[in-house]
Amino acid sequence: MSIPSTQTVAWIENPGQSGKLIIRSDASIQEPSENEVLVKLQHSGICHSDCHNVYGQGKYTEIPGHEGVGEVVKLGPGAKEELMGKRVGIKWLYSSCKECSGCKKGNINNCAKQSNTGRTTLGTLQQYVVAHGDFVTLIPDGVKSEVAAPLLCAGLSLAGGVSKLQPEVQPGDYVVIVGAGGGLGHIGVQIATIKGYKVIAIDGGAEKEKLAKEMGAAAFIDFTKQDVVQAVKDLTDGEGAHGVICVAGSERAYEQATELVRNNGVFVCVGLPPSTYMFPMSPIHIANRGLVIRGSSTGTAEQMDELLQLAKEGKITPKIEVFDFEESPKIIQELNKYEVTGRKVVRAPA
Ligand SMILES: [Zn+2]
Ligand SMILES: [Zn+2]
Asked: Where is the signal peptide (predicted)?
C-alpha cells in the first residue's frame, strides 16, 4: 500500500475558551519510530474528553481522538511483525511503563508513567495515526470497526468502572449510573446489567430514557423533572443504592451523586469535571457512613478483550451514529453541551 505524503486531520486552533476544531488536508504523516506502528484509520469515536483538548483544559496535542480503529500499514523498528495488515484499536492508553507495581499486576491503566493518545501523542482524528505496537488492541473478526470504536474508550471506561464495584456490591444489588444516556453511560448500563446488577439510570430527556431502558436499565430517573435523591430512595428501600457510578463530568452531577449511595456502599468516580473541582464530601460523612470511594480510569487489557468478545456475541451493542469526518467540529460542540445520546463516530477519509 502506498502511503501519501500529506493527509486530512482535525486540528485544534487556539486551544482554550475560544478553541476551535478545523479540518486540514495539508498535515504531514508521522513515521513510526521504535516499537510503533502506523495505522490507516477507518473509524474514530469522539469522546466528551476530547473537548478538554479543544477548550484547553490541560496540556494536550493539536489532534484529539482516542477511539480509533484501522489497519496497520507500516511497522517501526522492533515492532511485532505479526501486526502488519491487522485491524487494531487505538485507545487512550498509548503506552505504560511495564515496570511499576501497577503495571506488573496488569493495572496498566493507572500507571503513573503512562502516555496517552491525543494528550502526549497525536490523536485518532486523522487518516494515519502512529500507535505503540505493544498497546494496540486486536479487533476480532465479526465486530465492525464503527462498533469497536466506542468500546475502546467509552466501553472500556465503564467495564473498568463497573469492575470497581466489587467486592462490596453483589449481583442483584442496586447500582445507580449517573449520566446513563451518554456515550459511556449507556454501555455501562449494558455491562452492569450483564453482571447481574439492578441498574437505576439517571439522565435527562426522553431520548436518553429510551436508550437507557433499551440497554437494560431497571428504572430511569429524569433529573430535569424528578427529585433524584428521593426517587432513588423510593426504589431502594429508603437506603440508597449499593453502588453509584458517576459517569457525568459536571460538577452538579457530583454534588448530587454522593447523596445516592447507602451506608457501606461504593462510589466510583469515572466522569471528569475540571481538575480544579474537589470531591464534594466531608471526611466525617465518609467515615461515619463507611463509604468506599474508588477512582476508575479506562480499564485493563483483559477487560478490553472481554468487552470485544461480548460485542462479537451480540451482547454489547453500543448505540452509534456514523458521520463524515468533516462533521467532527460540530460533534465536539454538541458533546461540550452534553447534547449527544449514545456515541457519534466519524468515518476517516478514504
Ligand atoms: Zn474518552
Ligand atoms: Zn507502569
From this structure: none
